[in-house]
Amino acid sequence: MTTAASALQPIFIGGAWRPGRGAPVVSVNPVDGSVNASLAGADASDVAEAVERGVAAMHAPAWRNLLPHERARIIRRIGDGIAAETETLALLQLRDNGKPLYETRGLVISAANTFGFFASALETLESEVTPSRGAFLTLTTYQPLGVVGAITPWNSPIASEAQKVAPALAAGCAVVLKPSELTPLLALELGRIAQAAGLPDGLLSVVPGTGAVAGAALVAHPDVRKISFTGGTETGRAIARAAADKLMPLTLELGGKSPTIVFADADLDIAINGVLFGIFSSQGQSCIAGSRLFVQRAIYATFVERLVARAKQLRVGDPLDPQTHLGPLISAPQRAKVESYVELARAEGGRILCGGRRPEGAAFANGTFYEPTIVEGLSNRSRVCQEEIFGPVLVVLPFDDEADVIAQANDTVYGLACGIWTGDYKRAWRVGTAIAAGTLWINTYKQFSISTPFAGAKASGMGVEKGRTGIRSYQQEQSVYWGLDEQPNPWANAPQ
Ligand code: NAD
């Protein structure tokens, strides 16, 4: 770190901006190691205060009595507030986590649209009148679950947060948001924008702090009625264990090791660009990164040769430069993790076809840069193919036929996503539906829309985010039996 931290910045609890009582949280610019900001982080007592304020705010008439279209108006204003500051927020996020500007801009726009989408969904979602089976009218209505704990990782700040905060507010809940301690800044900006949009105090608190302190306190708090978590699979498991004691519902969006499959009949130009984007955008720090590439043996040698040639042309550099494809990794420990996996690949018998090192030169001296790396010669059973690296490392493997690639693609604990490149639409369907993956891309990769549900299979997650009904995962169904009897229930009559 090259710059001394100035005064600790406040956090956002119950509508008030005040210092947290926990350890400082420091946002570091991974381009050069300078300090963006130091915050007075949250401890368990701050989290408890945020939850108490959330309980009070969600039961206050000012929120509880709002009709859906009135609540939607506030939620839409939050989205408009984000959109109005797109450039500033994109630049701040770039400093917070090192992604190139075109990506951070995209994440901010996506966050704004997420609020807009859930505002529209809220106004148009319907409750049900169910078929009656007696002298009563039966209805299903939906009540807010309670205070929601939203816990997010560092790789897509503001977009991940919006994906939880917007549907939870739409559902009528209050949210206590715990962003990653590595990237706290955008979540606090979201708090500021929500407050300016007229969201009543207490409905959104932002408590940056460590997972072990602030995150664990949020999960354990008795008045938190749901955790919506995005992060690593092991952390998700620990949260699920703690949630079991409270019988608390969870949404878990976890890690991945997603296969990308290129058949010999694919449009190879389109496939090459898609594969490169799928693994190397966001520096490979993406849950849905296509990190295992299976190429049909007939085209393996030529495809890999072309892919490697193109990967060597990708530019690693300053995320502010529009020519840059890959910025720095989030932190020195994350780069060390990537490096240790590349060493492991070598030890496991892999051949490094490109990358496998830090870029050289003064511009890279203080940042956490790493070159896009392609490895071949490993078995799908190797640790490098089985464990999530979360960096710019692609392993390529040949396959013979559909049965072979289906077996290899499914041979993983994860099930987040899968990409298939082929000119045969029937094959795409056959293979795609045989692979356990929450998202299937056919002749495209890493494309998203808020209107399409997102979930992970196997160790990649539990529950669903996004989509119109994303709001429902923050609500409790209430079944109503509305009696229409003209006569008393005869059961209670005295015997004649
Ligand atoms: P992480 O699991 O280390 O941390 C995620 C969040 O959990 C952070 O805010 C952290 O402080 C908090 N946390 C840590 N321990 C906790 C505990 N015991 N109780 C409560 N909270 C705790 O993950 P990360 O390194 O920030 O992010 C990378 C991971 O996230 C990767 O595995 C990636 O695949 C995954 N991810 C998944 C998705 C998805 O949608 N499936 C999206 C993005 C990232």
Describe what you observe in this structure.
Helix content is 38%, strand content 21%. The N terminus is likely disordered. The chain contains 15 helices and 24 strands. By secondary structure, the protein is of the alpha/beta class. The strands form seven sheets. It has a seven-stranded mixed sheet, sandwiched between helices. Strands 9-8-7-10-11-22 form a six-stranded mixed sheet, sandwiched between helices. Strands 5-6-24 form a three-stranded antiparallel sheet, with no helix packed on it. The chain has two domains: 271 residues, 3-Layer(aba) Sandwich (Aldehyde Dehydrogenase, Chain A, domain 1), CATH 3.40.605.10; 184 residues, Aldehyde Dehydrogenase, Chain A, domain 2 (3-Layer(aba) Sandwich). Helix 3 packs across helix 7. A hairpin with a 6-residue loop joins strand 3 and strand 4. The structure holds nicotinamide-adenine-dinucleotide. The site of nicotinamide-adenine-dinucleotide has 30 residues, from helix 8 and helix 9.
